[in-house]
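Pasting as-is:
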Amino acid sequence: MMGLGSRRSGPSVAFALAAALGALAWACLESPLEAQVCNVKVVTDANPDYSDIGSMLHSITDNWQETKDKCWAIYYWNHIARRQTAPTILHGMELTDPVRQFNDYGYTMCSTISGNNCAIFAALGLPVKFWDISLHTVMEVQYDGKYHMFDNSLSALYTTCDGKTLAGVAEIGAQGACEKSGGKTEPGHIAKYHCLYSTSKNGFLTGCDTQRSVAEEYRCFNPNGLKYRYYFNSWDLGHRYILNLRDGEVYTRYYRRMDADSPNKVQQRENKGYEADPAYFVGKTDPEAANPRYRIRGNGIRTFVPPLTAEGLAASAESISGVRAASPSGVVPVAAGQPGELVFKIEGANVITATMIKALFIRKTADDQVAISVSTNNGLTWKEVWRADKTGRLSPVVDLVDQINGSYDFLVKVRLLAKAAAPDVTLDYIVFGTLTQLNSKTQPRLKIGKNTVYVGAGEQTESIVYWPDLQGTAYKQYACEEENLRTLDKHTGYNGVMKPAQPGKPGSVTFKMDAPRQITKITYGGRLFLRSKGHIDFLHSFDGGKTWEKSYTWTDNTPPWDHIQYVTVSDVPAGVRSVRLKYVMESPDSEIGLFAVRMEANYKPADASPKPMEVTFTWKEVQEDYSTVTRSHTQLVEKLPARYEINVGGADHPVMESLWVKVAGAAPHPNPPPKGEGTREVKYGYSDGRDNAGAKKFVDRWVTVGKVLSKGKPYTVTEKSLTNWGAGDADGKKLTDGVVGSTYTGGSSYAAGAIYDAKQKPEITVDLGKPEKCGAFRIHGGGYPWWDAMRGEVKDKVEVLTSTDNKEYASQGFFNFNLRWKDIPANYMWTDEESFCAHNDELILAKPVEARYVKFKITPARFTSISEVQVLDSIGYEPFDMKIALPDGRDRSDLAAYPLKHVPSK
């Protein structure tokens, strides 16, 4: 029997869930302990904590002292956390809440990440500005007395001519000159000569989505095209990552998409060559389809086996009415002729894409009733998804996609009615398998060497969260009252979407939240719009609307007119299980409204006693030959919070596979044994019993590039360049002109230099004009096929030889084209697709050698392109700690503690 209204899928919404739930179905018949842990947090010192905006800022910035360093660290991690592609649109707006964006999505364009940056920097307490420039969008943040531009779309930062101070928007495209331009004054001087993340001056951006020259960027920053959106910051905040786990519940986050082999894959319209299973992503079309090369989307699998005993139901069910636990387990109506209901809450932590429900019912007669319904608005409305139409033993499999796709939690109600005798209707077991979508770039990671893992739990409360879509009538499923209210069918983007219907009179909307137990705290607010005289008020009531308390009023109508504000109320009267939250807007005209609202009520869990946790990291250890070996580590965390270490071996940073977490106890292992063989014992420690003893924490490096001695120097070549794809070097000047080519190969990249095939063996000899102390050499190349150096694919060979007289040459060694992620310096921004198909490779000498002539002896293994050869006096590396701060036990999730800097326009 299938669920009603399932979309776009075959016999099962999720083939991975079918296997997982098949193993869980028998395991649930055992008697697990009743337990739960709320607001679980698992993070490492290898990347930031994205639980909430406060935790994110703490992990990224707290170990840095100067504001400029804090801002650079935010820029660095945001480069990793997102990709430049078709942006995520939710509720009619680009997703600019950084916590929601970085945990679940990662799909941004320039305006999207600029809005996210405005929210992040403002939460740090810094003034921000949002700019539209020519066919591009960037933002600025103020510190040290001036505004500085941060472009996390194309991963570019620019300095003023001092080489240290980050430039502002208006400076980047302005006229300028310095020694880097030879004293020549020209427009876009900073864009062309002072980009920190370009291949060279007048070169290409290193960390962007495609071939982009700094000259193109100057055109973006042309002074005639700059538009400071003084009225708008395009930001949002409010989301937090909520991971609550009950006994019998297991959450496994995979760092890759899990539907690659799904039999239910269908073609995605944005990419005719791309297929995906609709149960594994949010929305009608897989966001990954626009750019599969980015590999952003991962998936989580969350399974829940509620124990159907009296004690187990008390801890795992959201509500129980008219049913009781049978002996030894199972659920029956309390009495014949009276309907009974059992409600479970299903949570994702990451955004939910699909859920499968498997159950076993007994329905003795046709007059007995059994049905399953779901609610995505905390029980305000219900939709039936399955009803029994046969008698006997029934094993329904209910697939939910459309009904719950895009939500973070929902309720499942099982309704039982026995006509003649209560035992005639029985629920023997029910299991849930939920798929989530996650951003693979931001999950807790491990690096080569020693890693510190933090496992903790925040406030032991459960949560009800409303985040209604305010467009059209979508909000009505959450609202219980409204007065003088109108909404636009679609967001305009720069204006509130919910407003008073008649100006001059108050307009309001009220939302009701009912909790199964005592409410302990409420947090509510949103993104507000106020352009004229007027006010927006937040009110709440704990007595059903009889009395109201005003917690906040906004009256500041100076731009920017999109303001974010939240309030937290902790003095909730004893015994309160229901709260009403009201937003009131009043203005003499229509220049007022709400962009978005978010409400959260925290309530007591069924069991708040401390519980041990089990945490398993699985990774693929990279070997010298680029092959991988799968390993894992399982930790029993007996007391929270806790820290422990995982030592990772191999030749490079590992490929992350999964993170598995659950409350310790009888819930099945993620790889359970066949039915009938008992519960597989969880093995603690390393899967192979081998510890990388003595491992040290990996520390990044910072590269400093010395003077290029070969710029503009003459050279000879023993082979004539081919002219395929626009390549060629007829004038013999391209290879030392100081312009290093793009980090992407293919397309127009070949026109930047020479190209040779495997039949040629060119030797490029550069004459430095006089003997120089040569400490390092670089060669920038690519070619066809597009071999990736990070995968060990490059088979070309280049030897460097030096001479003082152009007669006797000494070999200085070969370039190593087999790169490792661990060697990439922190101040190098890699491409969005994480490829190294056209890299400026280095050969650094242990000791400088004196030479006038430098020969690059090339042995191509394909069509090999070269845009530049370089001789340098030095290239130096020094350790550089990214200074990630692990949680310190302080709860930073309260948005009211992070008021955003409101910057009136000047």
